[in-house]
């Protein structure tokens, strides 16, 4: 097959794929084609952000370089999001050497829910404002999560986890945790390879039947990236 024939086959394959997806949601295809035809400006780490689409494969996947630093078990994650949906996963983390550990946050009935499973503790906590305001109001909300390592007279390298929403500690709690180093982070959905684990080991997360849809931006973490963020079935914020 010559070069011209190969190019023609490729164009036909792309055209067939576009036609198939367009029959489901033409607006999404328009955005996909637009970004295929120019240098993309999608960036979850900046003000541009990324729009998570309402499809199960829509997500952003981070893999972190394994660290030998003394503070390797510390983990800090900050980001902003806005949405109108009442249900969906915002993020979860995994640890390569400790596959049953997970830290996650998701939406349930428009409220934020924070869940983690560590060797010493498993917690599910609803993050309510005092006035019970829901966060699926299409306004920007800022999340800050931090696992901090410190030394005490009795316990070496003890760890505490706390979380703030829009600058406020709305839980009023700090958790003693024993989770190990985070090696991956998923924003906005579930990786196919994690589906079985989530179904079998996280009773709360597996009840999240709908996919998150909305914008996530200004993501920051203290861990060095092993590779650039991997974007899947996403588009520009709007």
UniProtKB/TrEMBL annotation:
InterPro entries: ConA-like_dom_sf (IPR013320), Laminin_G (IPR001791), Neurexin-related_CASP (IPR050372). It holds the Pfam family Laminin_G_2. Keywords: Signal. Residues 49-237 form the Laminin G domain. Residues 1-23 form the signal peptide. One of its GO terms (cellular component) is membrane. Gene3D superfamilies: 2.60.120.200. The keyword Signal applies. It comes from the Eukaryota. PANTHER family: PIKACHURIN-LIKE PROTEIN (PTHR15036), SP2353, ISOFORM A (PTHR15036:SF85). This is Laminin G domain-containing protein.
């Amino acid at each position: 097959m010559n070069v011209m024939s190969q190019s023609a086959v490729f164009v036909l394959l792309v055209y067939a794929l576009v036609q198939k997806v367009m029959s489901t949601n033409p607006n999404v295809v328009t955005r996909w084609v637009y970004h295929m035809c120019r240098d993309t400006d999608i960036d979850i780490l900046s003000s541009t952000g990324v729009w998570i689409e309402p499809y199960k494969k829509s997500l952003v996947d981070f893999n972190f370089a394994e660290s030998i630093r003394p503070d390797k078990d510390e983990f800090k994650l900050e980001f902003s999001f806005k949405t109108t949906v009442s249900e969906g996963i915002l993020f979860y983390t995994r640890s390569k050497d400790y596959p049953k550990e997970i830290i996650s946050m998701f939406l349930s009935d428009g409220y934020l829910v924070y869940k983690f499973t560590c060797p010493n503790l498993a917690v599910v906590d609803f993050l309510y404002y005092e006035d019970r305001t829901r966060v699926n109001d299409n306004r920007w909300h800022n999340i800050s999560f931090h696992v901090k390592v410190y030394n005490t007279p009795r316990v070496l390298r003890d760890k505490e986890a706390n979380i703030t929403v829009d600058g406020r500690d709305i839980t009023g709690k700090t958790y003693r945790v024993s989770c190990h180093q985070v090696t991956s982070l998923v924003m906005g959905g579930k990786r196919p390879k994690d589906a079985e684990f989530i179904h079998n080991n996280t009773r709360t997360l597996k009840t999240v039947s709908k996919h998150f849809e909305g914008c996530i931006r200004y993501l920051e973490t203290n861990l060095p990236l092993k590779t650039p963020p991997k974007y899947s079935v996403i588009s520009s914020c709007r």
